## 1
Amino acid sequence: MLNLDWNIIWTFVNIIILFILLKKFLFGPVTEMMEKRAGEIKASFDDAEQVKKEAEALRIAYAKRLEKSKAEAGSIIKDAEAEAQEKGEEIIDKARQDAEIMIKDAEKYIELEKERSLKEARAEIAGVALCAAQKAMESGDISDSSINSFIKQVGETVE
C-alpha cells in the first residue's frame, strides 16, 4: 500500500497554515490597500474630470462675456462717433453763423464808411461851390439870383 511519510504530511499542513496566515495577514491588507488606492485614483480622475468640465464652463462664460464686451465697445464707439459728428456739425454751424455775423457787420461798416465819405465829399463840394460863388460875387460877374439858383442846385446834389 501506500506509505505516507509524516514529513510530507507536516509539510502540507505547514504550507496550508502558512497560506492561511499569509491570506489573513498579508494578502488581505495588501488587497485592501490596493482597493483603497484604486478608489483614490478613481476619485482623483473624477475630480479632474469635474474640474475640466468647470473650466470648460468658465471658458464658455468668458467667451460669451468677451463677445458681449466687444459688442458694447462697438456700440460705445458708434455712439461716440455719432456724438463727435454731431458736435462737429454744431461747431461748423456756429462758425458759419459767426462768419455771417462778421460779414453783416463788415457790410454795415462799409456802408457807414461810404455814407461818411459821401458826406465829406458833399461838404467839400459845397465848400468849393461856396468859394467859387463868393469869388464870382466879388468879381461881380454873376447876379444874386443866379448864385441862389446855383446854391440851391448844389444843395440838392449834396443831399
## 2
Amino acid sequence: MSTVQAGMDCKRLKVAFAGTPEFAAVALDALIASEHDVVVVLTQPDRPAGRGRKLAPSAVKQRALAAGIPVQQPQSLRNEAAQAELAAVGADVLVVAAYGLILPQAVLDMPPMGCLNIHGSLLPRWRGAAPIHRAILAGDARTGICIMQMDAGLDTGDVLLERALDIGEDETAAQLHDRLAALGASALMESLSAHCRGELQPRRQPEEGVSYAEKLSKSEARLDFSEQTVELHRRIRAFNPWPVAEAVLRGERVRVWLSRVVAADEIAATDLSSIAPGTIVSIRPDAVRVRTGNGLIDLLQLQWPGKKMQDASVFCQGRELQGEVFTSS
C-alpha cells in the first residue's frame, strides 16, 4: 500500500530528526544537504563533558544550530507538552538515529509516514545500544545498516532497506563507526522518497538469529593476556575509542589502542614454552610483542597514565620493558 497522503510531496518531505552523537550527525548532514526540509531536530539535553565538566551540546545539536534548524531537547517524550511541541511542526516523517530516548506509541503514530530508524547492524542481529562494538567482539565478518520502520519493541520493526559491508580484520570500532555512519546516511537518502511512494517492501524480522548488543562497561575493557590472541585483538579493536582496552604494567594502568595478530610462522620461530601470558617477549621497531594464551600479539599504540596515546616506539623510550608482565589488575 502506498505511503503517499494528500498534500505530501515525496521529493521534498518535511522531516523531523531525532539523534544525539556523531553517528546521527552524519545522517543529519545528509538531510540538510538534500532536497528535504528538516523542520525540527530533537536531541538529548546538554551533558557535562571534558575536564571542566561544563555542559556541552551534542554533535547533532551543533549541526542543527549551524544550519538554523529549531532544536527541541525534552528530558522525555512521554509527557504531553513535549509531544504537543513535536506535533506542532507537522512533520511527514520522524527519522531517528542513536537518539537515546524511548519513543512512546503516541510519537510513533504521530507522523503520516511513521518513524524510521537508522540502525547499525543487520537486524535481527545486534538489536540494542552497542551493535558496532558487539559485532567486532563476536568476530562477525559482516555488518551493515538497516532502515527500520519503528514499533514499540526494541529494534523489532520491519526493515525497509538493508545495506551490508565487510568488517576488516584489523578494523576498530572507531573506523567501523565512521563507515557505517556514512552508509547509514546514504541508505536514508535512498529510502525516504521511495518509502513515501510505497516502493519499499517492509521485511518482517525473522525470529531466528536475534541477539542483543548490551551497553559497554569499562570492566569489559580489562585485558587478560591468558586469553587467545584473536580474542584480545577483538577486544582492543572493539573498545577503541571507548572505553579503551587496558592492562596493568609496572603497577600503572596502561591503555592499549591498537594491536596486530602475529603471524603463525613468527610464533613458530619463538620458544614460548617457559614464558607466561602477559610477558613482553620483545620490543619491535613498531610494536610491543606480548605472550598470549596461545601465541603472540603486537601492541602498536599504547598510553601511559596522564600521557597521550603513543606509538609503541615512543611508549618504550627510556624504559627497559622486555620481560615485564602485563596483568589484568
## 3
Amino acid sequence: MKKQIYDVIVIGGGAAGLLASALAAEQGFSTLLIERNEKTGRKLRITGKGRCNVTNNCRPREVIDNIPTGGRFLCSAMNAFSPEKVMAMFEAMGVPLKTERGSRVFPVSDHAGDIVGALNKRVRKAGVELLQAKAEEIETEEGRVSGVRTDKGHYLGRRVLLCTGGMSYPLTGSDGSGYSMAQKLGHSLIEPKASLVPLEIAGNDCPDMQGLSLKNVAITITDGGKKPVYQDFGELLFTHFGVSGPLILSASAHLKDYEHKHYRLSIDLKPALDEKTLDARLLRDFSQQANRDYSNCLGGLVNKLMIPVIVRRSEIPPATKVNSITKQQRRRLLELLKGFTLDIEGPRPVAEAIITSGGVDCGEINPKTMESKLVPGLYFAGEVINCDGYTGGFNLQIAWATAYAAASHFE
C-alpha cells in the first residue's frame, strides 16, 4: 500500500499552527498537524493571565510600530490580515470580543479557552488530521521538503509549515526544537533571548518588599545616556528576585544590551503630585504627627511593606521625631518618593519570559508568503521567526498574520 503524501504538514499546534492548518484544509489541501502535547493551544490558554489578549484593535501601521524586531518584514502580512480581520474572524467563529484599555482585545467571556476551543472546532471541521508526536527533523529530497521525521515515524509532505514557537514556557512545548530543525536545513538563527520578562534587581530592597504591588506609578528606565530608554505609567510588582508586573514586562522589550549598558529603573511613587505639591503634603502630614517617630509617620504616603525600605534609603534615623526633621532631610525623602531607583542586573531566564526575541532570520524568509528562500516547500509562522512585539496583543497578531500569509500562498 502506497504511503500517503500530505499536501501540508504543520509542526506545532499553537496559535499559528491551529489557524494555518485549518486554513490549509479549508482550501482542499490534505493537512497533518503534528503536536507533541496531548492538547493543542497550551500556551494560548495561559496568555493574558488566562484571558487571551487576542490582538490589538488598531491599524496595521500601529501594529508595525509596536514590533521593534522584524516590524518591516511583517508589513505585507499585517496588511493582508489586519487586526480588524482577525477580530471579524473570531466573531464569525462564535467568540464575541471586547476592546479594553490600550486597545487590547479579549473574549467577552475573559476565557482563553474560548479562543482555543473555537480554533480546535475549526480544525476538526476542516478535516485536519491531528498527530500527537514530537517532530525531530524536516526531511528533504533534491533540495526540496519531502516530509517530517517524528518519534512515531516518518510522514511525507509536499509542504511543511514550522510554527513551534520560541523557548519561553517550555512546559507548553516551546522548547526551541524548531530552531534546530531550521538550522539543520541551513537557516541562520538570531540568538534567542527573553522578552516581555521580569527583571532581576541588585540588592535587598525588592526581597524586603516581596509581594507588594504598586498601582498608578510612573517608571523611567535609563542606560546612562541623555534620553530615557523607556517611560510608562501603570502597575508593577516586587518579587524575591526583583520586579515584575505589566509595566516591567513592557519595559523589558526595550532592554536589549545588558552586557554593555547599565540600566537603572526609577519609580515615581507619586506621579500625580509635582514636587511643590508633594512637599506641601509632607509638611502637612508632619505637622499633624509632630511628636511621632519618623518610622511611624509614613503610613499615609507608602504601603507598610515599603516603609522600612524608605526609612533606610532616606538615611533619616527611624526614631527621629517628626518635628525635628530638617528641610534637607525632608528634601531627601521627597526625592526618594519621586525617584525610587533600582539597578537592573538583567532579565529572568528565557523560560520565564512571555515571548522569545530572536529566531529564524527574517532575511531568509519571503515576507509575502513566509516560504523559505533556501528550501522550497518550507514555511514559517509565529514566534519561531525573529519577530517580537510589545505587550498588548501584538505578538498574537504576529502569529495570526504570519499563519494566514503562509496558508494563503500554498500552491
## 4
Amino acid sequence: MRPVPDISLPSVVHVPGSGSKPDMVPLEHAKKLAPAVTRAQDWQDNVPYIYGHELLRAGYCWEAHEVWEAVWLSTPVNGTERLLLQALIQKANANLKSVMQRDNAAARLHIQVEELRVDLVARLGGRTAIYMGVDIDSKKMHYNS
C-alpha cells in the first residue's frame, strides 16, 4: 500500500465505551484533504480515501469510519463511489463491533457490507474485479493497492 504523505497514524486506537479518547489531530488533517467531489478515476490521489484504508489495515476501525465519512460526503449522490464508501464504512463499523465483542451487531453489519458489495458488482455490470483499489469480487473487499 502506498503510504499517505504527512499524516501519521493516531496515537491511540479509539474504542467507544473503553475510556479511550480519539486522537483527532491526524483525522481532522485527513478530512480537510477530502476533494470537493470524489470520483473513481481519481482515487489514487484521494489522500483521505487511501488513509482510511491505511487506518483500517492497522486496526483503527473507528478512525477509518470517521475519515471515510468525510470522503463519502463528497461522492456523487447515487454514484458507485458512494456505494463503495458506504460498504467500506460499514466494514469498518463491523470490525469495530467485533473488537467490542458485540458479535450480533458485527454479524448484521457484515451482512449489510455483503449486500452493498453485491449491489456494487451489479451496478458495475460485473465488468471489473477492482474498483477504486478494492477487490470487490472478494467478500472481504480487500484493498489491493
